[in-house]
Amino acid sequence: MVILAIIPVIAAMWVLTGARRGTPRKVESTEFHMNTGISVTLYVDDPSKAQGLFRKAFDEVARIERVLEPLKGTGHLQKINAGDAGAWWEMNPDLKAVMTRARHFYDVSGGVFDPTIGPVKWLWDFENGGKIPERADLQAALGMVGLDRVEVSGDRLRFSSPGMKLDFGAIAKGCAVDRMAAVLRQNGVKAALINAGGNILTIGRKPDNTEWVIGVRHPRGEQTILVKPLPNVAVATSGDYERFFVKDGVRYHHIIDSRTGQPARKCIAATVWTDTAIGADALSTTMFLLGPEEGVKLARKLRNVETLIYYEKDGRIEAAMSPGIVGRVNP
Q1: Which H, E and C letters describe the chain, residue by residue?
Q2: Band of pLDDT at residue 22, cut at 50, 70 and 90
Q3: Could you give the angle at the alpha carbon of 106 between the alpha carbons of 95 and 232, nearest 5°?
């Protein structure tokens, strides 16, 4: 068994030698997009076709990245964020689809998942190692947060307050992974695994008809926690160990609570299994923000959603999990 050790989730799969004619061969490729390494593992009968498949998948993630980049470049979202407050903007189909899903997660989370967090998150400057923002700046930025103040009419949107911006960082990788998977399926791929920095989606079963095995990194150790296969095909983890800095003994991480402007403190890692990568991406952030009790409660309400949440209590690391995870965890 070969382990793909990509933090925070590790995907394990059998390697097929392909010695017999017609036996599917495992081929892999990795490229850097969306500030992370994205790997694609395919099982194909004809390895000579693999390069073309990889190119189509990676071209798709690059296209989505251009659309959803909030600040840099000249993409669709960047132009909207840089535009005048109160102006109506046409959304292309990709942006409209992401906006629709983001509003869904905003609603089901009671506003905890909020893609207008950008002006607050950017003050922390995690792209350049992180810094603690000034209190006055933070309070001003918090006044720009609230997805309910982004008006949508058909294919158009506008910000109702000056300074508002959209940042789909908590959902964009999931969107890209789903689109990559769609491209691979359209081109006949029957067995594959996509890993975008811990946002994982599987296609089909492995050629030996066994399930993909997904492991979760322990949030405070190097060991891998294996979780027996679930019927859901997408997995994502949000953790306070992914992007953070420490100042005066306090860990400041990049998962910012839109209600306080501060790093969320109710847990240290949250993993979600569901049926789409965009759902797993958004919900792992949501569960992290909600914490163990409310996170598990939300998972129980949602269809095809399971969660495993680690948190600290009295100096110990505890785990909370939805019913579908119970009995499947093998530390």
Answers
A1: CEEEEECCEEEEECCCCCCCCCCCEEEEEEEEECCEEEEEEEEECCHHHHHHHHHHHHHHHHHHHHHHCCCCCCCHHHHHHCCCCCCCEECCHHHHHHHHHHHHHHHHCCCCCCHHHHHHHHHHCHHHCCCCCCHHHHHHHHCCCCHHHEEEECCEEEECCCCCCCCCCCCHHHHHHHHHHHHHHHCCCCCEEEEECCEEEEECCCCCCCCCEEEEECCCCCCEEEECCCCCCEEEEEECCCCEEEECCEEEECCECCCCCCECCCCCEEEEEECCHHHHHHHHHHHHHHCHHHHHHHHHHCCCCEEEEEEEECCEEEEEECCCCCCCEEC
A2: low
A3: 80
Alpha-carbon torsion angle 295, 317, 326, 15, nearest 10 = 110
What pTM was estimated for this model as a whole?
0.91
Position 226 scores a pLDDT of 86
pLDDT at position 195 = 96
Which amino acid, one-letter code, is at 284?
Answer: S
d(CA 230, CA 308): 13
What average pLDDT does this structure show over 53-69? 97
Q: Which residues on neighbouring strands pair with residue 290, listed in sequence order?
A: none
Pairing verdict, β 25-33 and 36-44:
antiparallel
For residue 170, the model assigns a pLDDT of: 96
